[in-house]
Specification:
By secondary structure, this protein is an all-alpha fold. Helix content is 83%, strand content 0%. It contains six helices and no strands. Helix 3 runs antiparallel to helix 4. The longest helix is centred in the first third of the chain and has 39 residues.
Length: 142
């Protein structure tokens, strides 16, 4: 076997492995988004999972915010968001009061989940920065 054939084989193997990882991420994200949709559409189910100190209606709103953030995260993980675009998209998401409330309550949990995953940490850092900037802008009188 020639060196070029081996190199092509190795490149195809890496490409197949990358595509399988992307498919797996999409499947896991779909499962998470389906779960969030079920929870936010069924207050009785949401009540079972809501933090004890949180009103179910507020929790449902935060679940909807989490859906939006999860969609952006998946787009980022699959390479549909560039490093230059991420701060813009994060800022757009955090322009929403409910997304800022979600991040204030669960952003630390998201950061813990991202530990050891460079891409997830980069995403979380961008969301943290956007949340801080947007919160400051919404608190500053015009």
């Amino acid at each position: 076997m020639s060196l070029s054939t081996a190199m092509v084989g190795a490149a195809l193997f890496r490409q197949t492995a990358r595509h399988q990882a992307e498919r797996n991420e999409a499947i896991v994200a779909r499962n998470q988004l389906d779960w969030l949709a079920q929870m936010s559409a069924d207050p009785a189910l949401a009540k079972l999972w809501a933090p004890g100190d949180m009103d179910v209606a507020e929790y449902v709103q935060l679940l909807k915010a989490n859906q939006l953030i999860c969609i952006l995260s998946l787009r980022d993980r699959l390479g549909f968001v560039t490093d230059k675009q991420l701060p813009f998209f994060a800022s757009m998401v955090m322009n929403s009061d409910v997304c800022r409330r979600y991040w204030a309550r669960f952003g630390d949990l998201r950061a813990q989940e991202a530990e050891g995953d460079e891409r997830a940490s980069r995403f979380t850092d961008a969301m943290n920065q956007a949340a801080q900037t947007q919160s400051h802008e919404h608190l500053t009188p015009a």
